Amino acid sequence: MILSSSTVFTISSPSSATKTRRYIAQTPQSPFLFTRNCNPTSLPFPPSTRSTKPCSVQAAVLKENEDEKVVEESFRPSTFTRGPEASPQPSPPTELDKWVVKLERSVNVFLTDSVVTILDALYHGRDYARFYVLETIARVPYFAFISVLHLYESFGWWRRSDYIKVHFAESWNEMHHLLIMEDLGGNSWWLDRFLAQHMAFFYYIMTVLMYALSPRMAYHFSECVEIHAFETYDKFIKARGEDLKKMPAPEVAVKYYTEGDLYLFDEFQTSRAPNSRRPKIENLYDVFLNIRDDEAEHCKTMGACQTHGNLRSPHSYPEDASEDDTGSEFRQADCEGVADCLDKSVTSPSSKQKQNIRGKENKEAVYTSRDE
Predict the structure, then answer these.
(1) Per the CB 3.0–4.6 Å rule, which of 63, 136, 224, 303 could disulfide with 196?
(2) How big is the chain by its Cα radius of gyration, in Å?
(3) What Gene Ontology terms for biological process does this UniProt record contain (predicted)?
(4) Nearest to 273 by CA among 317, 308, 306
């Protein structure tokens, strides 16, 4: 189920005094929208000429009937927010902003294509080993994001509890993908483990630096990786679907998708209401189908994160907003990342200038009251 930009869910709490909570799924109002295949040439600028038709990724879904029909599933980045009145309203992008975003995305596409080319050459015909390497790499960005977010909080710059919680849930999901691939024998070769672990080490360092410099760029790069993962699993399902239906599902997959507390499973799917997706796992085909769908949810979350301050946990409600996120105790910075802070320090008045302006306004107000 894909939520539209105006879908509203109403859930009543079980307490005696019934309290109604509303889920609002809304597409982030940002010039930096999700584009298919991370194509830097399709940036939706300027806003006045941007099409209102959502960008989409087409997912081929195999049906279990005799005449297998292909169903196209579109998705776009959306997230639960505090509501339209509290959503961030970014200013129109300048020419410099457009140039910077194009550069960031071009670099991301080049890096992603380079890694994909290497993996294609090394793992042709070895699907499970390729998936093991892919999942080892795919969970690294979420570790990096959390590391930098904790560092910012330690410095007292700002706190983003929902970001940390959602990114942890994403890493938890990717870890179970990795456990599934290990159960299928994807890590049986020492060389595969050596390559995956060392790539993950250098990828972590690169992502930490990228996230500290420009979170938007880091989120977009992670989105590119997730799109590649989505397309890889989708092709595998179409090519091996009938064989997979005859194979049993690993126990780790059954436990993760169908048993126990599924709070973290709901947490990383920021475009869905909790409990709206409950997979069935009957065979290995169902496992890969759900892994592919997980990657689509990661794409949507990474797309939403590219708008500063837009992300909220699916389990958070406007009336229950934590003080950690409102900044009642922490000084909340108006920017994130080195690039954004430098840009705003140049284009916006300094704090001292703002204080002088406020002081002049206060003096004028006092003189006006005296004259009256």
Answers:
(1) 136
(2) 23
(3) alternative respiration; carotenoid biosynthetic process
(4) 317
Q: Which of 35-39, 265-269, 311-315 has the lowest mean pLDDT?
A: 35-39
Q: Which of 47-61, 163-177, 220-234 has the lowest mean pLDDT?
A: 47-61
The DSSP bridge pattern shows strands 59-62 and 8-12 to be unpaired
Task: Answer positive or negative: Cα dihedral of 97, 103, 106, 108.
Answer: negative
Angstrom distance (rounded) from CA 343 to CA 49:
25
Q: Return the sign of the alpha-carbon dihedral for residues 71, 75, 79, 84.
A: negative
Q: Is 126 helix (H, G, I), strand (E, B) or coil?
A: coil
Three-state secondary structure call for residue 112? helix
Q: Which two tokens stand for residue 24?
A: 């609002």
- Can you read off the two tokens belonging to residue 25? 């799924």
CA distance linking residue 186 with residue 189, whole number of Å = 8
**Within a 10 A sphere around the Cβ of 313, how many other Cβ atoms?**
22
C-alpha closest to that of 167 among 140, 146, 150: 146
pLDDT of residue 218: 94
Is the bond leading into 279 cis (omega within 30 degrees of zero)? no
Give the distance, in angstroms, between the CA of residue 96 and the centroid of all CA atoms in the same chain: 25
> CA-to-CA distance for 21 and 41, rounded, in angstroms?
41
Residue 343: per-residue pLDDT: 65
Contacts within 8 Å (CB) and 24+ apart, 274-277: 274/314, 274/315, 276/1, 277/1
Minimal CA–CA distance to 313: which of 273, 261, 270? 270
Q: Which residue has the tokens 């099409």?
A: 51
Q: What is the mean pLDDT of residues 24-44?
A: 41
Residue 130: other Cβ atoms inside 10 A: 20
On whether the CB atoms of residues 100 and 94 are closer than 8 A, the answer is no
Give pTM, 2 decimals.
Answer: 0.68
